[in-house]
What does this fold into?
Amino acid sequence: MCEISGTKSSTPNSGFKIQRYCSQWAARLGPEEEFPIFLSSTWFKWLRELKYTSKCVVGEAYGHSSKYVYNCNECGNIGFKFMQYFMLNWHRKLEHNKERFVKHWNENHREENQLLSVANTDDDTVNKTNNPVNIRCLLQ
It folds into this structure.
């Protein structure tokens, strides 16, 4: 059975995942088994990017901008936590921080993100209603 959900829902988090806001980091911060080896060159590269406010998870959601540092204290705190938890290899805390980020973004910055996504894509690739649709297949 497949479940389809759009942006119209009763809870702010429904239908939105971290992939919607920062696809590059969502792919990187996936399952623990896919993380780079601790202290490897890839691990250092990712840590360096997490330190740069325009390249980190929250910066990607802001269109690779660091303006959130000045505009939203919560986004700044969440961005710092991504770097801290990655550096300490705290995978569970990273997962919790991803959820915290999505919840905060949906409650405070959803409209801003829709404007960014329209500005960063061609007219042919934009959903005409600007409402993403999540399709989740549930196997029984």
Q: What stands out?
A: The first helix runs from residue 18 to 21. The CA atoms of residues 75 and 105 lie 8 Å apart. The longest strand covers residues 2-5.
